[in-house]
Amino acid sequence: MLTLDNPLQAISEISRDITGRSQVLLAGGREMSALDVQREYLAKPRDFTDKRGADAVSNRVLGAWERALDAIVAGNLGTIAREMDWVIKYQLIEQYRARHDLPLSAPQVAQADLAYHDIDRRRGLYYQLQRSSKVDRTARDIDIFEAKTTPPVPGRYRQAG
Q1: Angle between helices 107-116 and 85-100 (to 10 degrees)
Q2: What contacts 63, CB < 8 A, 6 or more positions away?
Q3: How far apart are CA 84 and CA 64, in angstroms?
Q4: pLDDT of 52-64, one tens digit each?
Q5: How far apart are CA 23 and CA 84, in angstroms?
């Protein structure tokens, strides 16, 4: 079982460790790294889809999850720097800090953090990266529009909604 002994403390510790290697205490006294916890969580849907099959979206999600964990283990975030939002943002802020010789606590860094998430497509830093082809999109605008206006076809998950 992967129940955290103290979830708030564990989240605080994990959020400060980009390597994923800091140990967190599980209920029962066992310790695991965030990466090990994620690997165990990933194993469950992998086992399920290996037995029952998976659609293209499930394979894409599981593949992205695995690539992210592999990149963290290898210490090479560059392999996922165009597709993982948190890596895109992290590298953008680190480049900004280095270029301007700023500490993480600088107000300009906080402003860049906010600007990254600006949902105005003209101002948001993410959208600027997108326009300059520096990030990979997971969905096209037309797919997003259709998802907002067309209900899913009846299927396995119909009863959930």
Answers
A1: 150
A2: none
A3: 8
A4: 988 988 999 999 9
A5: 24
Three-state DSSP class for residue 25: strand
- pLDDT tier for residue 140 given thresholds of 50, 70 and 90: confident
- pLDDT(161) > 50: no
In order, the DSSP letters of 30-43 are: -EEEHHHHHHHHHH
The Cα 65–Cα 76 span in angstroms is 15
How far is Cα 138 from Cα 38, in angstroms, rounded to an integer? 22
Neighbours of 61 (CB within 10 A): 14
Which position has the token pair 């998802």? 147
Length of the chain as a residue count: 161
Angle separating helix axes 56-74 and 34-52, nearest 10 degrees: 150
Whether 81 and 89 have beta carbons less than 8 Å apart is answered as no
Pick the closest to residue 81 from 73, 91, 70, 69 (CA basis). 91
Q: How far apart are CA 77 and CA 49, in angstroms?
A: 27
DSSP assignment, residue 106? Answer: -
Q: Give yes or no for a contact between 25 and 6, defined as CB atoms under 8 angstroms apart.
A: yes
